């Protein structure tokens, strides 16, 4: 099948599935489980009996059967067996409570049914998302944590618990500290410059007629993948031996100004900044769009009041406008910080961490998939997560406060 | 001190003219109120005086100096905005000192000015608060305080009370009146669409309509001798009744026969013999109409709706012609059971206005 057609089919199936799920959950909830009508005591007792079978007994038996089929009767008393037994029991208990919640005793009013249906509905809608996120996000966190404290034994294929040994090994590696140092550099430079440039562009393009076109061009890099951007910038930094025509624009300019062609990406220390330029180029558009909206949200009268009070353009910008959008600036800054902490593609595609440009995510990748050292790789993944979490929490809180 | 002089001032946005030929002399120490229906350009005119809108034609002088191209901060004006426009990220104290700090005033002088203004406006306990922690009335006072500390020659108010609730509006109106009294040599220009504010505050009212000035005068001048039908109906509530009619008697007093067989009415407006038979509109305020036994010179009509307010009784006479406003009579006290009655109403001749082609006969040019 043609890939485009495949994509189309995926979209149709995906969207159709979502709509179908939405329709089906409403249908089940409002027709069978909790119809919007009153039931007498006898009716509800009869419904409770059939309901017990459908909502509780059948799923519970199914779950129990699956468990037995997977672990067998002897498998129960292993550590994983007991762990899963607890989960199975919790599920069965949950089904029992669900039956009680849906099929009440005695006389039931229509209002009670409607309000109970509306309590269940959001959870029903969220269920696929919760399952998918649990599988793809929550489970890997715990699995990574487990891997980071184990050592794979290649001869037996088992994982042995080694405590913090992986972490200790990582701490002893200079490459890890280089990655930490570079990440800190990225963390300071990229969010600051992206937000700063974004704010500058947002303000400068606010009142000019071709401002929207300028914004469009500055926003465009957002649509380019990190690897694509890296390829573009690799060409910008490209170096040819002296005497040959320079195809990299930076060297072309440099040579024109009388310099010798430079291998920009191998210049120790400074090459980090050449890599950062790529991310700044991408993220400025993002910062600009959000900050531009924030600037437009500032009450015009406060600006006019400042004009009457005698403030000049710079004072209006720094003393009236910027302080009013500080919450938005913080959200933009922290959002870019999160991107920076996870930066991988750019470094991987441009230098692969050579010449002193290693960063944590690329370090993790090289440990996990090049050196096949799952223990240390997972340990570095945990370090990244540890660094990201507080900023993430702060970011979510700020964003929530913004929305109020 | 500081008077203002507007000479042939106009404002156009491209092809669209919003104001033209505004000529106005404002003496120092006056409290001028701009009123007019929404969209008449009263706020635009104020913003032109403030320097927030460019003046497209004519000249504006403040204190004898042409300020068309002078930036707002150097016009020695201060402005209270409709939404107060307090800086949300600054405390009350910082809001009030912002302009003074920009002007590089010494710190102790700034502090003294703010303390004094805060004292007058009873804001002293709130100086450390942010605007969001203040009530509407307090925010309003901070906005006024921000103007006072700068000690400007001209205060500009852009509908400052429209965001307050009714009770607070009355109280703040009184405060502004007192503030004006405490600064007799400061000029104030006040924009509102509320005629009660205009009548109570103004030393002179400027009524704006149709891109220009309809009439300038003291509140009672506008009430007693309106220049045209627009001003007559704009000032006063309920609005002045207008009866179409025909002049049937001229001289010192004028007699007009009301159209629609409603009788005749006598006005103290003088007319000339050649006015005989002219089509005019007679204007009588609802409160000037009273019941009479005079069947000859009176307005005769049947009451369609009666509203008893206790203090006054409002009678509505719905005219036969479609689309015309009902005639309203406002009788003092309680009158029971007038609905459906055919009544004779008249007014004192000096309360009866006559308009020809929309212009009052008192102000006729020919």
From TrEMBL, chain A:
<dbReference type="Pfam" id="PF00528">
    <property type="entry name" value="BPD_transp_1"/>
</dbReference>
<comment type="similarity">
    <text>Belongs to the binding-protein-dependent transport system permease family.</text>
</comment>
<feature type="transmembrane region" description="Helical">
    <location>
        <begin position="50"/>
        <end position="70"/>
    </location>
</feature>
<dbReference type="InterPro" id="IPR035906">
    <property type="entry name" value="MetI-like_sf"/>
</dbReference>
<keyword id="KW-0812">Transmembrane</keyword>
<feature type="transmembrane region" description="Helical">
    <location>
        <begin position="273"/>
        <end position="295"/>
    </location>
</feature>
<feature type="transmembrane region" description="Helical">
    <location>
        <begin position="216"/>
        <end position="236"/>
    </location>
</feature>
<feature type="transmembrane region" description="Helical">
    <location>
        <begin position="325"/>
        <end position="350"/>
    </location>
</feature>
<dbReference type="InterPro" id="IPR051393">
    <property type="entry name" value="ABC_transporter_permease"/>
</dbReference>
<dbReference type="InterPro" id="IPR000515">
    <property type="entry name" value="MetI-like"/>
</dbReference>
<feature type="domain" description="ABC transmembrane type-1">
    <location>
        <begin position="180"/>
        <end position="395"/>
    </location>
</feature>
<feature type="transmembrane region" description="Helical">
    <location>
        <begin position="76"/>
        <end position="98"/>
    </location>
</feature>
<keyword id="KW-0472">Membrane</keyword>
<protein>
    <submittedName>
        <fullName>Maltose ABC transporter membrane protein /trehalose ABC transporter membrane protein /sucrose ABC transporter membrane protein</fullName>
    </submittedName>
</protein>
<feature type="transmembrane region" description="Helical">
    <location>
        <begin position="6"/>
        <end position="29"/>
    </location>
</feature>
<feature type="transmembrane region" description="Helical">
    <location>
        <begin position="119"/>
        <end position="139"/>
    </location>
</feature>
<dbReference type="GO" id="GO:0055085">
    <property type="term" value="P:transmembrane transport"/>
</dbReference>
<feature type="transmembrane region" description="Helical">
    <location>
        <begin position="374"/>
        <end position="396"/>
    </location>
</feature>
<feature type="transmembrane region" description="Helical">
    <location>
        <begin position="184"/>
        <end position="204"/>
    </location>
</feature>
<dbReference type="GO" id="GO:0005886">
    <property type="term" value="C:plasma membrane"/>
</dbReference>
<keyword id="KW-1133">Transmembrane helix</keyword>
<keyword id="KW-1003">Cell membrane</keyword>
TrEMBL record, chain B:
<keyword id="KW-0067">ATP-binding</keyword>
<keyword id="KW-0472">Membrane</keyword>
<comment type="similarity">
    <text>Belongs to the ABC transporter superfamily.</text>
</comment>
<dbReference type="InterPro" id="IPR027417">
    <property type="entry name" value="P-loop_NTPase"/>
</dbReference>
<dbReference type="GO" id="GO:1990060">
    <property type="term" value="C:maltose transport complex"/>
</dbReference>
<dbReference type="InterPro" id="IPR012340">
    <property type="entry name" value="NA-bd_OB-fold"/>
</dbReference>
<dbReference type="InterPro" id="IPR003593">
    <property type="entry name" value="AAA+_ATPase"/>
</dbReference>
<dbReference type="GO" id="GO:0016887">
    <property type="term" value="F:ATP hydrolysis activity"/>
</dbReference>
<keyword id="KW-0997">Cell inner membrane</keyword>
<protein>
    <submittedName>
        <fullName>Maltose ABC transporter ATP-binding protein /trehalose ABC transporter ATP-binding protein /sucrose ABC transporter ATP-binding protein</fullName>
    </submittedName>
</protein>
<dbReference type="InterPro" id="IPR040582">
    <property type="entry name" value="OB_MalK-like"/>
</dbReference>
<dbReference type="GO" id="GO:0015423">
    <property type="term" value="F:ABC-type maltose transporter activity"/>
</dbReference>
<dbReference type="Pfam" id="PF17912">
    <property type="entry name" value="OB_MalK"/>
</dbReference>
<keyword id="KW-0547">Nucleotide-binding</keyword>
<feature type="domain" description="ABC transporter">
    <location>
        <begin position="4"/>
        <end position="235"/>
    </location>
</feature>
<keyword id="KW-1003">Cell membrane</keyword>
<dbReference type="InterPro" id="IPR015855">
    <property type="entry name" value="ABC_transpr_MalK-like"/>
</dbReference>
<dbReference type="InterPro" id="IPR017871">
    <property type="entry name" value="ABC_transporter-like_CS"/>
</dbReference>
<keyword id="KW-0813">Transport</keyword>
<dbReference type="InterPro" id="IPR047641">
    <property type="entry name" value="ABC_transpr_MalK/UgpC-like"/>
</dbReference>
<dbReference type="InterPro" id="IPR008995">
    <property type="entry name" value="Mo/tungstate-bd_C_term_dom"/>
</dbReference>
<dbReference type="GO" id="GO:0005524">
    <property type="term" value="F:ATP binding"/>
</dbReference>
């Amino acid at each position: 099948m043609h890939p485009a057609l495949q994509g189309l089919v995926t979209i149709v199936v995906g969207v159709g599935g979502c709509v179908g799920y939405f329709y089906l959950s409403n249908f089940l909830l409002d027709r069978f489980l909790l119809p919007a009508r009153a039931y007498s005591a006898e009716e509800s007792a009869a419904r409770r009996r059939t309901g017990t079978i459908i909502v509780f007994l059948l799923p519970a038996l199914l779950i129990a059967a699956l468990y037995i089929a997977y672990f067998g009767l002897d498998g129960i008393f292993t550590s994983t067996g007991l762990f899963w037994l607890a989960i199975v029991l919790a599920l069965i208990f949950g089904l029992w409570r669900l039956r009680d919640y849906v099929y009440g005793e005695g006389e039931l009013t229509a209002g009670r049914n409607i309000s109970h249906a509306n309590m269940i509905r959001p959870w029903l809608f969220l269920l696929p998302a919760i399952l998918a996120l649990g599988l793809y996000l929550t489970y890997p966190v715990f699995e990574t944590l487990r891997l980071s404290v184990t050592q794979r034994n290649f001869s037996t294929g088992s994982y042995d618990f080694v405590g913090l040994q992986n972490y200790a090994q990582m701490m002893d590696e200079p490459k890890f500290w280089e990655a930490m140092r570079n990440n800190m550099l990225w963390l300071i430079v990229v969010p600051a410059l992206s937000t700063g440039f974004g704010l500058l562009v947002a303000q400068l393009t606010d009142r000019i007629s071709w401002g929207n076109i300028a914004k469009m061009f500055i926003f465009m890099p957002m649509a380019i993948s990190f690897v694509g951007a890296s390829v573009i910038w690799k060409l910008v930094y490209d170096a040819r031996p002296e005497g040959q025509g320079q195809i990299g624009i930076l060297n072309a300019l440099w040579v024109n100004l009388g310099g010798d062609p430079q291998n920009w990406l191998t210049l120790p220390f400074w090459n980090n900044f050449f890599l950062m330029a790529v991310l700044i180029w991408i993220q400025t558009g993002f910062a600009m769009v959000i900050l531009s909206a924030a600037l437009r949200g500032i009450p015009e009268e406060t600006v006019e009041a400042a004009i009457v009070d005698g403030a000049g353009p710079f004072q209006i910008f720094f003393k009236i406008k910027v302080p009013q959008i500080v919450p938005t600036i913080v959200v933009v800054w922290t959002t870019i910080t999160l991107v920076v902490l996870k930066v991988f593609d750019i470094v991987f595609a441009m230098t692969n961490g050579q010449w002193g440009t290693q960063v944590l995510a690329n370090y993790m990748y090289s440990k996990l998939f090049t050196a096949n050292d799952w223990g240390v790789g997972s340990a570095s993944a945990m370090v990244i997560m540890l660094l990201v979490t507080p900023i993430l929490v702060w970011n979510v809180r700020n964003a929530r406060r913004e929305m109020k | 001190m500081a008077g203002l002089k507007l000479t042939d001032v106009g404002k156009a946005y491209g092809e669209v003219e919003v104001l033209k030929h505004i000529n106005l002399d404002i003496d120092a120490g006056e409290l001028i109120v701009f009123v007019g229906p929404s969209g008449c350009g009263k706020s635009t005119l104020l913003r032109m005086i403030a320097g927030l809108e460019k003046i497209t034609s004519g000249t504006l002088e403040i204190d004898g100096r042409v300020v068309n191209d002078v930036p707002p901060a150097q016009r020695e004006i201060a402005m209270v905005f409709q939404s107060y426009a307090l800086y949300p990220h600054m405390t009350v104290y910082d809001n009030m000192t912002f302009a003074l700090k920009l002007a590089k005033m010494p710190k102790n002088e700034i502090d003294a000015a703010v303390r004094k203004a805060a004292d007058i406006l009873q804001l002293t306990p709130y100086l450390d608060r942010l605007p969001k922690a203040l009530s509407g009335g307090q925010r309003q006072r901070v906005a006024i305080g921000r103007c006072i500390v700068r000690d400007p020659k001209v205060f500009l108010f852009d509908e400052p009370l429209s965001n307050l609730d009714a009770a607070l509006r009355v109280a703040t109106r009184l405060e502004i009146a007192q503030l004006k009294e405490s600064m007799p040599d400061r000029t104030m220009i006040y924009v509102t669409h509320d005629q009660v504010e205009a009548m109570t505050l103004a030393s002179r009212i400027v009524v704006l309509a149709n891109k220009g000035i309809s009439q300038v005068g003291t509140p009672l001048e506008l009430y007693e001798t309106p220049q045209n039908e627009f001003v007559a109906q704009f000032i006063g509530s309920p609005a002045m009744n207008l009866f179409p009619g025909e002049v049937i008697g001229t001289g010192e007093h004028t007699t007009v026969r009301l159209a629609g067989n409603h009788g005749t009415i006598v006005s103290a407006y003088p007319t000339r013999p050649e006015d005989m038979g002219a089509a005019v509109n007679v204007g009588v305020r609802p409160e000037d109409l009273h019941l009479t036994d005079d069947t000859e010179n009176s307005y005769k009509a049947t009451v369609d709706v009666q509203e008893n307010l206790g203090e006054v009784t409002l009678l509505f006479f719905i005219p036969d012609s479609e689309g015309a406003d009902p005639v309203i009579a406002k009788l003092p006290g309680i009158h029971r059971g007038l609905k459906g009655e055919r009544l004779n109403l008249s007014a004192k001749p000096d309360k009866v206005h006559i308009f020809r082609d929309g212009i009052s006969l008192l102000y006729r040019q020919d």
